Amino acid sequence: MNLKNILTPQQIEICQKELYYYQSVGVKKNILQIALEHNFTQKKEKSPSHSLDLLKEYEFVISREDEKSFHIELKELLGPKRLLALEEKLNKSVIQRVVPVREFKEKFETILSVDPEIIEKKIKQFNSYDREDNEVLTLFRMILHHGVVHNVSDIHINAYEDFSWLRYRQNGKIQSKYLLNGDLAQRFSLIVKEKSNIDLINVQTPQSGGFSEAFQNANIDFRIEIAPSRFGENIVIRILDRSNNLKSFSQLFPKEHPMSERLLHFVNQKNGFFLTVGPTGSGKTTTLNAILTQRDRLREIIYTIEDPIEYKIDFVTQYQVNESINFTFATAMKSVMRQDPDVIAIGEMRDRESIHIALKAAHSGHMVFSTLHTTNSYMALERIRDEGGDLFILAYSLSGVIAQRLVQKLCDCKIPSSSEKGKNYFKSDKFGFEKKGCVRCDFSGYGQRTLLTDVVLIPPDIKTRYGFYMALKNSTVLSVWDNLITFSYFESAKHLFEQGLCDYDTLISELLSLGYVDEN
User: Alpha helices of 46-132 — where are they, by DSSP H?
Assistant: First the structure.
């Protein structure tokens, strides 16, 4: 396979740099494996998205962006004054290119299809007057497209007595959007059911499904959950954008991360039990998939057991749980154990039986990864104890636990902070950064989210393992915590602060919710 034919020069450069890094830490990898970890062989670049108000004001389309300039397309060139004003707003130089009117109109209308003002205007029109089915379908696609472009994770349509409320979950927070009348909400429900190939007439019982749509030359998957509520059907649409959400291990834990090298060693062991834990929506599945994608998928037999399968991973055999035919996590685990696996990943350990089987699989020489819903790494151990997990197997098999939360990351427009609050709280010699706001982040000051982690790694030596077992048995795990390799939420927050990834206000808010006041 000639990688030059399928990778860009920049992607090849990234792969080569990571190859040198892996060689320096003693990990055997080749460029193809690294390209697969980053999904470079499949990922398609999205068009850059910026403030719609600015695009409408100057009537242009961004074709490309680099470190120093924006390349834009227009019907006619901007005059010197307007060009200078645009460059000041974008904080970069602007290179103009005139394109034919028809070509520009097609591109510009595609951008306007995600304009929330146009969507709101159409919804108000449709609430007042009956519309043809194809018009309602076009409006529904505009709502989906808007969600994809703005990195929305979920679209909620909740039924109330007098109206239905359409809301987005963006960066973990609910954004109130549009009010729908009962008829329009019902027509949306029928569209969702038809696309998901589920029962159109059934409004009495919960139903699940999914469908795919093409946006900007990429196929986006949508997972559907519909359930009856008092005043109508409640619809939740989960947006699964593989190109945006399937991260590589080095993206989550870059080389400058204090635990990167140690984590890389522990998740690549031949046998053991490794957990990622956290509340719903904290990115556990993303972390689990990142760990799997950096394993040697070309030379290992890897199975996953999921409900549902969210992202396809190359060279990994993925099983979908189906409880209606009694194909549960437990029965799937029993089957996989007879299929000569090297690595097993369980989407979530939900009951006592799946926990027991996972522990036995790890103890019998396999590498097992899974997730749990707990707040921190210590509570993960307590949860397994409460479910009756074998403490001896747990003590001698558990490799590590990553507990995690997602916190808002500062946009690149951030500015150095002059406040000493963060410096004093984290006992750092750095002042950190604070938000500013620009066109790229729609003047919020924040971009996407990053990981705040609580990591515990258990060294393999017998003395440590025996002490760990006795501590588990006597409910005194905290007494041996100093013998383990730990990286607390506080240390993680300090790292994010000193790296300029998050501001003090964001981090202190999250730490206070976790029970931190001051580490010392």
Answer: 52-58, 80-90, 101-112, 116-128
* Structure token pair of residue 117: 């003002």
φ/ψ of residue 383, rounded to 5:
-65, -45
Task: Tell how strand 69-74 and strand 93-98 pair up.
Answer: parallel
8 Å CB contact between 29 and 232: no
Q: Answer yes or no: are the C-beta atoms of 180 and 163 closer than 8 Å.
A: yes
Asked if 495 and 260 count as a contact pair (C-beta separation under 8 A), the reply is: no
Work out whether strand 152-159 and strand 232-240 pair parallel, antiparallel, or are unpaired.
Answer: antiparallel
**491-510, pLDDT tens digit by residue?**
999 999 999 999 999 999 99
Q: How far is CA 392 from CA 123, 363, 470, in A?
A: 60, 10, 9
**pLDDT tens, position by position, 354-377:** 888 888 888 888 999 999 888 888
Three-class SS state of 155: strand
Query: Which pTM value belongs to this model?
Result: 0.76
Q: Dihedral through CA 492, CA 495, CA 496, CA 500, nearest 10?
A: 170
Residues 6+ apart with CB under 8 A from 73: 60, 61, 63, 97, 98, 99, 104, 107
